[in-house]
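A quick aside before the break. I want you to see a complete sequence-to-structure record at least once, exactly as it would be stored in a machine-readable document. Don't worry about memorizing anything.
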Amino acid sequence: MDPIDVLADAVSRITHLQGLQHDLMVHLAQVGLQPPAPPAPAPPPPAPNAFAQVLKSVKLPEFSGERAEEELEAWVFRCEGYFDTVPNITEEQKVQLACLLLKGRAALWWREVKQKPPAERPATWQDFVRELKRLFLPLDAVHMAWEKLARARQRDRESVSAYTAYMRSIFFHIPAAHITEAHKLDAYVRGLLPHLREKVYVAEPASFEAAAALAAKHEALRSVVNRTSQLPRNFGPPGPGPSARTAPPSYGPRPMELGAMTGTGQRPASNRSPITCWRCGQPGHTKRECTLPQPGNGPSRRPPARAAAARRQ
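That is the input. The structure line, written in tokens, reads:
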């Protein structure tokens, strides 16, 4: 069948159906009925809650209150970093999320807080952190941090990275309004080992972080120099020229110098010390070659066996 005829037949059928639909609509209007309304489109799916996504995708740290002096500041800092990644998060949601991360003594404290009236509970994140510090940090935490800062010294076998981390933990417990960058720089450099302190002072760093980077650099250079000084002198890659270090280090016995040997396998007489006899004291022969009779080689002084036997009788 010709495709044009097929297309024409389809168009005629569609026109016929449209006419039937029009007649039906006119009839319904005459009898007072309205056609059924088309179904309403389905509502779009609700947008995922960003706060719930953080709870599922990010593993936030927990706080127990056991080592509050060392962990609280770091825990608060990490939580605030996560809050910055969540758009439109409220203060109430911050407190709710932080409560889910409490355990141990801190969780027991929050259980007591929930039994209080809502007006007495911490409503904002700052109030929540203030209550945690008041309960789990010692009252003289800032004073203790200043005392640690005054006594801070790098130990003999302590690395620069470990010493820097210890100083940072002290700076965290001192409010930023009470300590300046100059205080941090002076306390850090003053506590370095003498050979590192001298290098850092000469470089005149402008901040604590710059001083820490210089100290780590000089420590690494000193380590490389110490390892290099322990290598043998003839250690190194071969190179051109007469001064090339091509022979590996030898730790065994050295070969004999054949040029110092004579044809008979003996050293020249000029290199030998004169031989002296131990028996007669004369040079030129040994004790075995000496002709002097040995003491006791004369007649035996021991009586005959028969005389000895008769004497015993």
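Two observations worth writing down. The CA atoms of residues 262 and 268 lie 6 Å apart. Residues 141-228 form one domain. We'll return to this after the break.
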